[in-house]
Structure to design on (370 residues):
Protein backbone atom coordinates (compact mmCIF):
# COMPACT_ATOMS: atom_id res chain seq x y z
CA UNK A 1 0.00 0.00 0.00
CA UNK A 2 2.84 2.36 1.06
CA UNK A 3 4.79 1.57 -2.09
CA UNK A 4 1.72 2.19 -4.23
CA UNK A 5 1.13 5.51 -2.47
CA UNK A 6 4.70 6.58 -3.18
CA UNK A 7 4.33 5.66 -6.84
CA UNK A 8 1.06 7.59 -7.17
CA UNK A 9 2.59 10.53 -5.33
CA UNK A 10 5.50 10.47 -7.78
CA UNK A 11 3.11 10.55 -10.74
CA UNK A 12 1.07 13.32 -9.12
CA UNK A 13 4.23 15.38 -8.59
CA UNK A 14 5.47 14.63 -12.12
CA UNK A 15 2.32 15.99 -13.71
CA UNK A 16 2.17 19.13 -11.56
CA UNK A 17 5.84 19.74 -12.41
CA UNK A 18 5.03 19.38 -16.10
CA UNK A 19 2.25 21.96 -15.86
CA UNK A 20 4.59 24.44 -14.15
CA UNK A 21 7.31 23.88 -16.76
CA UNK A 22 4.70 24.61 -19.41
CA UNK A 23 3.79 27.85 -17.65
CA UNK A 24 7.41 29.00 -17.42
CA UNK A 25 8.16 28.10 -21.06
CA UNK A 26 5.03 29.96 -22.11
CA UNK A 27 6.51 33.09 -20.50
CA UNK A 28 9.88 32.49 -22.17
CA UNK A 29 8.39 32.18 -25.67
CA UNK A 30 6.58 35.52 -25.42
CA UNK A 31 3.95 34.86 -28.04
CA UNK A 32 0.80 36.69 -27.15
CA UNK A 33 -1.82 34.25 -28.37
CA UNK A 34 -0.11 31.15 -26.98
CA UNK A 35 -1.99 31.14 -23.68
CA UNK A 36 -5.32 31.54 -25.46
CA UNK A 37 -4.53 28.92 -28.08
CA UNK A 38 -3.03 26.33 -25.76
CA UNK A 39 -4.60 26.98 -22.39
CA UNK A 40 -6.51 23.71 -22.51
CA UNK A 41 -3.45 21.73 -23.44
CA UNK A 42 -1.55 23.09 -20.46
CA UNK A 43 -4.45 22.20 -18.22
CA UNK A 44 -4.05 18.58 -19.31
CA UNK A 45 -1.17 17.92 -16.91
CA UNK A 46 -3.17 19.41 -14.04
CA UNK A 47 -6.12 17.28 -15.00
CA UNK A 48 -4.05 14.09 -14.86
CA UNK A 49 -2.46 15.20 -11.59
CA UNK A 50 -5.98 15.65 -10.22
CA UNK A 51 -6.90 12.12 -11.32
CA UNK A 52 -3.88 10.77 -9.42
CA UNK A 53 -4.66 12.90 -6.37
CA UNK A 54 -8.06 11.21 -6.12
CA UNK A 55 -6.25 7.93 -5.54
CA UNK A 56 -3.90 9.15 -2.82
CA UNK A 57 -4.76 9.26 0.87
CA UNK A 58 -5.93 11.38 2.58
CA UNK A 59 -8.91 11.75 0.30
CA UNK A 60 -11.23 14.72 0.59
CA UNK A 61 -8.86 16.88 2.62
CA UNK A 62 -5.41 18.44 2.28
CA UNK A 63 -2.16 16.55 2.61
CA UNK A 64 -0.52 16.78 6.05
CA UNK A 65 1.89 19.74 6.37
CA UNK A 66 4.90 17.40 6.30
CA UNK A 67 3.78 15.92 2.95
CA UNK A 68 3.02 19.35 1.52
CA UNK A 69 6.57 20.50 2.23
CA UNK A 70 8.03 17.36 0.68
CA UNK A 71 5.79 17.65 -2.41
CA UNK A 72 6.74 21.31 -2.86
CA UNK A 73 10.44 20.50 -2.64
CA UNK A 74 10.16 17.64 -5.12
CA UNK A 75 8.22 19.77 -7.60
CA UNK A 76 10.77 22.61 -7.37
CA UNK A 77 13.60 20.11 -7.89
CA UNK A 78 11.86 18.52 -10.90
CA UNK A 79 11.04 21.83 -12.54
CA UNK A 80 14.51 23.28 -12.03
CA UNK A 81 16.16 20.14 -13.35
CA UNK A 82 13.96 20.05 -16.49
CA UNK A 83 14.48 23.74 -17.17
CA UNK A 84 18.19 23.40 -16.39
CA UNK A 85 18.55 20.93 -19.28
CA UNK A 86 17.19 23.61 -21.60
CA UNK A 87 19.35 26.40 -20.20
CA UNK A 88 22.42 24.19 -20.61
CA UNK A 89 21.48 23.69 -24.26
CA UNK A 90 21.44 27.42 -24.92
CA UNK A 91 17.77 28.20 -24.32
CA UNK A 92 17.55 31.90 -23.44
CA UNK A 93 14.84 33.71 -21.48
CA UNK A 94 14.00 31.05 -18.87
CA UNK A 95 13.76 32.44 -15.39
CA UNK A 96 14.31 29.96 -12.56
CA UNK A 97 13.51 32.69 -10.05
CA UNK A 98 9.80 32.23 -10.71
CA UNK A 99 9.72 28.52 -9.83
CA UNK A 100 9.37 28.85 -6.04
CA UNK A 101 6.80 31.61 -6.40
CA UNK A 102 4.61 29.56 -8.78
CA UNK A 103 4.83 26.44 -6.61
CA UNK A 104 3.99 28.45 -3.51
CA UNK A 105 1.01 30.04 -5.21
CA UNK A 106 -0.15 26.63 -6.35
CA UNK A 107 0.13 25.08 -2.90
CA UNK A 108 -2.22 27.78 -1.58
CA UNK A 109 -4.82 27.06 -4.24
CA UNK A 110 -7.73 24.95 -2.99
CA UNK A 111 -7.65 21.41 -4.42
CA UNK B 1 -25.32 17.48 -72.27
CA UNK B 2 -25.35 15.14 -69.25
CA UNK B 3 -28.04 12.52 -69.04
CA UNK B 4 -29.63 11.16 -65.92
CA UNK B 5 -31.83 8.08 -65.99
CA UNK B 6 -34.94 7.87 -63.87
CA UNK B 7 -37.83 5.40 -64.00
CA UNK B 8 -40.06 6.16 -67.03
CA UNK B 9 -43.20 6.13 -64.94
CA UNK B 10 -41.91 9.02 -62.75
CA UNK B 11 -44.86 11.30 -62.34
CA UNK B 12 -44.56 14.83 -63.67
CA UNK B 13 -41.51 14.25 -65.88
CA UNK B 14 -42.05 13.36 -69.52
CA UNK B 15 -39.42 11.61 -71.69
CA UNK B 16 -36.87 14.08 -73.06
CA UNK B 17 -38.02 16.85 -70.80
CA UNK B 18 -35.34 19.29 -69.52
CA UNK B 19 -34.87 19.33 -65.76
CA UNK B 20 -32.57 20.90 -63.21
CA UNK B 21 -30.60 18.39 -61.17
CA UNK B 22 -29.02 19.42 -57.92
CA UNK B 23 -27.44 17.61 -54.98
CA UNK B 24 -28.66 17.53 -51.43
CA UNK B 25 -26.10 20.19 -50.47
CA UNK B 26 -26.05 21.09 -53.97
CA UNK B 27 -24.66 23.48 -56.46
CA UNK B 28 -25.84 26.90 -55.62
CA UNK B 29 -29.38 26.68 -54.40
CA UNK B 30 -31.19 29.95 -54.75
CA UNK B 31 -34.39 31.05 -53.16
CA UNK B 32 -36.89 33.28 -54.88
CA UNK B 33 -34.93 36.34 -53.84
CA UNK B 34 -31.85 34.88 -55.58
CA UNK B 35 -30.09 34.69 -52.24
CA UNK B 36 -27.64 31.81 -52.12
CA UNK B 37 -28.88 29.37 -49.49
CA UNK B 38 -26.25 26.67 -49.73
CA UNK B 39 -23.24 25.69 -51.77
CA UNK B 40 -21.40 22.53 -52.54
CA UNK B 41 -18.64 22.12 -49.95
CA UNK B 42 -15.00 22.01 -51.00
CA UNK B 43 -12.89 18.99 -50.24
CA UNK B 44 -9.16 19.20 -49.47
CA UNK B 45 -7.03 16.10 -49.03
CA UNK B 46 -10.16 13.97 -48.61
CA UNK B 47 -9.43 10.91 -50.68
CA UNK B 48 -12.18 8.57 -49.66
CA UNK B 49 -15.83 9.23 -50.34
CA UNK B 50 -17.53 10.63 -47.27
CA UNK B 51 -20.60 8.70 -46.16
CA UNK B 52 -23.95 10.25 -47.10
CA UNK B 53 -25.07 10.67 -43.52
CA UNK B 54 -21.90 12.59 -42.70
CA UNK B 55 -22.45 14.82 -45.72
CA UNK B 56 -25.90 15.62 -44.37
CA UNK B 57 -24.37 16.43 -40.97
CA UNK B 58 -21.82 18.73 -42.65
CA UNK B 59 -24.64 20.46 -44.56
CA UNK B 60 -26.58 20.89 -41.33
CA UNK B 61 -23.54 22.36 -39.54
CA UNK B 62 -23.04 24.84 -42.38
CA UNK B 63 -26.69 25.83 -42.14
CA UNK B 64 -26.49 26.35 -38.37
CA UNK B 65 -23.39 28.52 -38.77
CA UNK B 66 -25.01 30.48 -41.61
CA UNK B 67 -28.02 31.21 -39.48
CA UNK B 68 -25.97 32.24 -36.45
CA UNK B 69 -25.33 35.82 -35.47
CA UNK B 70 -21.60 35.68 -36.26
CA UNK B 71 -20.03 36.54 -39.59
CA UNK B 72 -17.53 33.93 -40.66
CA UNK B 73 -15.20 34.00 -43.62
CA UNK B 74 -15.20 30.21 -43.79
CA UNK B 75 -16.28 27.09 -41.95
CA UNK B 76 -13.96 24.10 -41.87
CA UNK B 77 -14.77 20.55 -40.82
CA UNK B 78 -11.76 18.45 -39.95
CA UNK B 79 -10.46 15.68 -37.68
CA UNK B 80 -11.53 12.10 -37.14
CA UNK B 81 -15.07 12.84 -38.31
CA UNK B 82 -13.69 12.58 -41.84
CA UNK B 83 -12.20 9.12 -41.19
CA UNK B 84 -14.03 6.19 -42.69
CA UNK B 85 -16.72 4.81 -40.40
CA UNK B 86 -18.32 6.19 -37.31
CA UNK B 87 -15.59 5.98 -34.67
CA UNK B 88 -15.47 9.74 -34.06
CA UNK B 89 -16.30 11.28 -30.68
CA UNK B 90 -17.08 14.77 -31.89
CA UNK B 91 -16.84 16.99 -34.94
CA UNK B 92 -13.96 19.46 -35.14
CA UNK B 93 -15.30 22.71 -36.55
CA UNK B 94 -13.06 25.64 -37.27
CA UNK B 95 -14.76 28.97 -37.78
CA UNK B 96 -12.52 31.38 -39.60
CA UNK B 97 -13.29 35.01 -38.89
CA UNK B 98 -14.07 37.37 -36.07
CA UNK B 99 -17.70 36.52 -35.43
CA UNK B 100 -19.03 35.59 -32.00
CA UNK B 101 -21.80 33.26 -30.94
CA UNK B 102 -19.61 30.15 -30.71
CA UNK B 103 -21.37 28.81 -27.62
CA UNK B 104 -24.78 29.13 -29.28
CA UNK B 105 -23.50 27.30 -32.36
CA UNK B 106 -22.13 24.51 -30.17
CA UNK B 107 -25.46 24.14 -28.38
CA UNK B 108 -27.44 24.17 -31.63
CA UNK B 109 -25.22 21.47 -33.12
CA UNK B 110 -25.60 19.35 -30.03
CA UNK B 111 -29.37 19.77 -29.72
CA UNK B 112 -30.14 19.85 -33.45
CA UNK B 113 -27.86 17.12 -34.77
CA UNK B 114 -27.19 15.20 -31.58
CA UNK B 115 -23.42 15.20 -31.84
CA UNK B 116 -20.77 17.09 -29.92
CA UNK B 117 -19.17 19.93 -31.82
CA UNK B 118 -15.65 20.98 -30.89
CA UNK B 119 -15.81 24.53 -32.22
CA UNK B 120 -12.76 26.77 -32.52
CA UNK B 121 -12.96 30.38 -33.64
CA UNK B 122 -9.88 31.87 -35.22
CA UNK B 123 -8.98 34.84 -37.36
CA UNK B 124 -7.44 34.07 -40.76
CA UNK B 125 -4.14 35.69 -39.85
CA UNK B 126 -3.82 33.67 -36.65
CA UNK B 127 -4.70 30.50 -38.56
CA UNK B 128 -2.02 31.17 -41.18
CA UNK B 129 0.51 31.75 -38.39
CA UNK B 130 -0.55 28.50 -36.77
CA UNK B 131 -0.23 26.52 -39.99
CA UNK B 132 3.26 27.91 -40.56
CA UNK B 133 4.56 27.11 -37.09
CA UNK B 134 2.45 24.41 -35.50
CA UNK B 135 2.54 20.82 -36.80
CA UNK B 136 -0.89 20.09 -35.38
CA UNK B 137 -2.44 22.94 -37.35
CA UNK B 138 -0.71 21.60 -40.41
CA UNK B 139 -2.14 18.18 -39.63
CA UNK B 140 -5.59 19.64 -39.07
CA UNK B 141 -5.51 21.32 -42.46
CA UNK B 142 -4.01 18.39 -44.32
CA UNK B 143 -7.54 17.07 -44.77
CA UNK B 144 -10.74 19.07 -44.45
CA UNK B 145 -14.09 20.01 -45.90
CA UNK B 146 -14.72 23.74 -46.26
CA UNK B 147 -17.76 25.89 -46.82
CA UNK B 148 -15.86 28.04 -49.31
CA UNK B 149 -12.89 27.57 -51.59
CA UNK B 150 -9.68 28.32 -49.70
CA UNK B 151 -5.95 27.76 -49.51
CA UNK B 152 -3.62 27.47 -46.55
CA UNK B 153 -0.38 26.67 -48.29
CA UNK B 154 2.17 28.63 -46.33
CA UNK B 155 5.88 28.21 -45.87
CA UNK B 156 6.93 26.43 -42.68
CA UNK B 157 8.49 28.65 -40.07
CA UNK B 158 10.29 26.67 -37.41
CA UNK B 159 10.29 28.20 -33.96
CA UNK B 160 12.16 25.68 -31.83
CA UNK B 161 11.07 27.17 -28.53
CA UNK B 162 7.48 26.79 -29.61
CA UNK B 163 8.08 23.19 -30.67
CA UNK B 164 9.69 22.45 -27.30
CA UNK B 165 6.55 23.84 -25.68
CA UNK B 166 4.30 21.63 -27.85
CA UNK B 167 6.47 18.57 -27.30
CA UNK B 168 6.29 18.88 -23.53
CA UNK B 169 2.60 18.05 -23.80
CA UNK B 170 3.53 14.57 -25.00
CA UNK B 171 5.74 13.99 -21.97
CA UNK B 172 2.57 13.58 -19.94
CA UNK B 173 2.17 10.09 -21.37
CA UNK B 174 5.38 8.90 -19.72
CA UNK B 175 4.08 9.70 -16.25
CA UNK B 176 0.38 9.31 -16.91
CA UNK B 177 0.13 6.08 -18.88
CA UNK B 178 -2.27 4.39 -16.47
CA UNK B 179 -4.58 7.38 -16.25
CA UNK B 180 -4.89 8.12 -19.95
CA UNK B 181 -7.41 6.42 -22.19
CA UNK B 182 -6.56 5.09 -25.64
CA UNK B 183 -7.61 8.19 -27.54
CA UNK B 184 -5.58 10.44 -25.23
CA UNK B 185 -2.53 8.19 -25.71
CA UNK B 186 -2.99 8.33 -29.49
CA UNK B 187 -3.33 12.13 -29.41
CA UNK B 188 -0.11 12.59 -27.41
CA UNK B 189 1.78 10.12 -29.59
CA UNK B 190 0.53 11.85 -32.74
CA UNK B 191 1.62 15.22 -31.35
CA UNK B 192 5.17 13.94 -30.75
CA UNK B 193 5.43 12.29 -34.17
CA UNK B 194 4.03 15.38 -35.93
CA UNK B 195 6.72 17.54 -34.27
CA UNK B 196 9.44 15.11 -35.34
CA UNK B 197 8.22 15.15 -38.95
CA UNK B 198 7.83 18.93 -38.88
CA UNK B 199 11.41 19.55 -37.74
CA UNK B 200 12.71 17.17 -40.38
CA UNK B 201 10.73 18.95 -43.10
CA UNK B 202 8.67 15.86 -43.92
CA UNK B 203 5.09 15.86 -45.17
CA UNK B 204 2.49 15.97 -42.41
CA UNK B 205 -0.84 14.24 -42.87
CA UNK B 206 -2.96 11.66 -41.08
CA UNK B 207 -1.60 8.86 -43.27
CA UNK B 208 2.04 9.88 -42.84
CA UNK B 209 1.74 10.17 -39.07
CA UNK B 210 -0.16 6.94 -38.61
CA UNK B 211 2.28 4.99 -40.71
CA UNK B 212 5.18 6.45 -38.71
CA UNK B 213 3.47 5.52 -35.42
CA UNK B 214 2.93 1.97 -36.67
CA UNK B 215 6.59 1.77 -37.62
CA UNK B 216 7.95 3.13 -34.31
CA UNK B 217 5.78 0.91 -32.14
CA UNK B 218 5.70 -2.05 -34.53
CA UNK B 219 1.91 -2.06 -34.61
CA UNK B 220 -0.31 -3.72 -37.17
CA UNK B 221 -3.12 -1.21 -36.67
CA UNK B 222 -3.34 2.24 -35.15
CA UNK B 223 -6.56 1.20 -33.38
CA UNK B 224 -4.44 -0.77 -30.91
CA UNK B 225 -3.43 2.53 -29.30
CA UNK B 226 -6.87 4.10 -29.58
CA UNK B 227 -8.45 1.05 -27.97
CA UNK B 228 -5.79 0.96 -25.25
CA UNK B 229 -4.66 -2.51 -26.23
CA UNK B 230 -0.92 -1.90 -26.05
CA UNK B 231 1.77 -3.51 -23.94
CA UNK B 232 2.74 -0.86 -21.38
CA UNK B 233 6.40 -1.78 -20.89
CA UNK B 234 7.20 -2.16 -24.58
CA UNK B 235 5.23 0.92 -25.60
CA UNK B 236 6.78 3.18 -22.96
CA UNK B 237 10.30 2.04 -23.83
CA UNK B 238 9.83 2.94 -27.50
CA UNK B 239 7.92 6.09 -26.66
CA UNK B 240 10.68 7.37 -24.37
CA UNK B 241 13.33 6.65 -27.00
CA UNK B 242 11.43 8.54 -29.70
CA UNK B 243 10.57 11.38 -27.31
CA UNK B 244 14.24 11.80 -26.36
CA UNK B 245 15.29 11.79 -30.02
CA UNK B 246 12.69 14.42 -30.89
CA UNK B 247 13.62 16.51 -27.85
CA UNK B 248 17.25 16.34 -28.97
CA UNK B 249 16.30 17.54 -32.47
CA UNK B 250 14.37 20.45 -31.03
CA UNK B 251 17.07 21.38 -28.51
CA UNK B 252 19.67 21.41 -31.25
CA UNK B 253 17.57 24.07 -32.97
CA UNK B 254 17.13 26.07 -29.77
CA UNK B 255 20.88 25.90 -29.18
CA UNK B 256 21.60 27.18 -32.69
CA UNK B 257 20.04 30.43 -31.60
CA UNK B 258 16.84 30.23 -33.64
CA UNK B 259 14.20 32.15 -31.78
Amino acid sequence: MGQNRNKLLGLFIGNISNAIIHKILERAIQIEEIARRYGKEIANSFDIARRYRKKINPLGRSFPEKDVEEIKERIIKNVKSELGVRIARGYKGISLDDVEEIVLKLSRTPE
Amino acid sequence: MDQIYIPKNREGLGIGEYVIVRGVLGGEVRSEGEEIKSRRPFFYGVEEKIEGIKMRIIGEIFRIVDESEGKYENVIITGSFLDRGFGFNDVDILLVGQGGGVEKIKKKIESGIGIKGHVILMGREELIKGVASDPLYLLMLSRFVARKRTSYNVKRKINYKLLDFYLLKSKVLLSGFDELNGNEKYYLTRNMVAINLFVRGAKIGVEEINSMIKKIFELGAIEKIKENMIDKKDFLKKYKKFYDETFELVMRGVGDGTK
